[in-house]
Design brief:
single chain; alpha/beta; nine-stranded mixed beta sheet; five-stranded mixed beta sheet; 10 helices; 29% strand; globular; disordered N terminus
């Protein structure tokens, strides 16, 4: 139970369940689980290799015998190639042999079982030559020249930073400030939270980019202060981060709902144009601080934050290192090529987007095209079981990063999250790079 709660804390999914006297935590794990065990400990196969998969249905940590399990098998996010069922005998387990992928990519095995009238499901994603996956995304001829011009224009806008000390969040080790500074045009702001160690001298610094959504910020990042590193956490939406929680909920359900689709018709109007420029401007803000060593700045984040980390690494070569976990917006038009498509699945979840004009626009914002220009030391993190930023899409980005000092972490069973050990490994690696 404690392990489950710790993981929920990492995911930001803390659940409070009221009871008669007080609130208590609740273990929300499934009563019945389907255990899927591949014959390769690294979940990775060569193309056209067979896969032997062991199945068990578990209740109370004991295998249930004599049950029928339905299953499907096919390429990630694509229609199933095989749909069938099998019988688990009195031993409580069975082994199934499956034909592997014919081309580099990931395949998904999904199993379902009905026990006492309730339906239970589990899945596993297996890799086939993932380091040979190549993107379908193509690079516009003026990709980098357009972004460099946009960046140059944004850099002409003065930062005009504002700092608000937060004594309730600060402690004897570090001071925390709410900050904002101008983005790509006068009157457009990036808001953030800055944690500054109290030790004297110049410090290394990191920018932490957020995952998708509209959120209230409630504390600084003291973990970096423990390593004597300045941390800037930013929001991307140009709104203050310390308003009442109800405001962010109203924005999520109101005018900023589905923001990832706003302005898709033209690259100058797409929502992420301002976001990408603001993410780069965050590096300029850190460089302007007299207690930051401008030669020792790193960037990191997961999902949308992983996307922004790749974007800024490509646009700001002075950044020393980057850690990108399961980056979003990779292979944004993958579904048009019978491939998985990364969040926000612009051509799957949104009607009317599949036009030549929009297909051209998204190429300027696809993480794959930014990855082509990443030259810094990079740590890339991707769980195989991620069903939001699917590994078929993210390996397309990883594989086009120019050869150099690349570190790849693959916590195989992770979905769209990381274990505490991966968070610690990321921080330790970045600290070494920023010495």
């Amino acid at each position: 139970m404690r392990k489950t709660l710790f993981l929920l804390f990492v995911l930001g999914c803390l659940l409070f369940v009221p009871c008669s006297a007080s609130a208590q935590y609740r273990n929300t794990g499934n009563y019945v689980t389907i255990r899927l065990t591949p014959d390769r400990a690294d979940w990775t196969y060569r193309c056209k290799s067979d896969v032997r998969l062991e199945l068990q249905v578990i209740r109370h940590n004991v295998a249930i015998p004599n049950v029928t399990v339905g299953y499907t098998w096919g390429y990630e996010q694509r229609p199933a190639l095989t749909k069938d069922s099998l019988r688990i005998d009195k031993t409580g387990k069975t082994t199934l042999t499956l034909h592997g992928a014919d081309v580099p990519g990931f395949m998904t095995f999904t199993a379902n079982v009905r026990i006492d009238g309730e339906q239970y499901t589990n899945y596993i994603n297996l890799a086939f030559d993932p380091l040979r996956i190549q993107p379908t995304t193509t690079l516009p001829e003026d990709f980098m020249s357009w972004w460099q011009a946009e960046l140059k224009n944004a850099e002409q806008v003065p930062l005009m930073p504002v700092f608000k000390h937060e004594p309730g969040m600060s402690n004897g080790k570090a001071d925390v400030y709410m900050v904002h500074f101008q983005n790509h045009k006068a009157g457009s702001y990036i808001y953030g939270m800055l944690t500054v160690p109290k030790t004297p001298g110049k410090h290394a610094a990191v920018v932490e980019y957020p995952g998708a959504g509209i959120h209230k910020f409630q504390s600084g990042n003291m973990a970096w202060a423990d390593s004597d590193i300045v941390c800037l956490q930013i929001g991307i939406h140009g709104i203050p981060l310390d308003m009442e929680a109800e405001v962010y909920q109203n924005l999520t359900n109101g005018g900023m709902a589905n923001y990832a689709y706003l302005g898709l018709e033209h690259r100058d109007n797409y929502y992420y144009r301002r976001v990408f420029l603001g993410a780069a401007k965050a590096v300029d803000f850190l460089k302007s601080l007299d207690y930051v060593d401008s030669t020792r700045i790193g960037v990191y984040g997961g999902s949308q934050g992983g996307l922004l980390s790749l974007v800024v690494a490509a646009l700001k070569p002075e950044v020393r290192c980057v850690s990108a976990a399961y980056p979003a917006m990779c292979e944004t038009a993958g579904s048009r090529y019978e491939r998985a498509e990364g969040w926000p699945r612009l051509f799957v979840w949104r009607k009317g987007t599949d036009t030549p004009q929009i297909r051209d626009v998204v190429r300027y914002f696809d993480a794959v095209n930014f990855a082509r220009f990443v030259t810094q030391d990079i740590q890339f993190i991707q769980g195989y079981n991620d069903h939001v930023c699917m590994p078929t899409t993210t390996f397309s980005a990883y594989n086009v990063i120019p050869k150099g000092r690349k570190i790849l972490l693959t916590p195989y069973d992770c979905s769209h999250w990381l274990y505490p050990e991966q968070h610690a490994a990321r921080r330790q690696w970045m600290c070494r790079m920023l010495r």
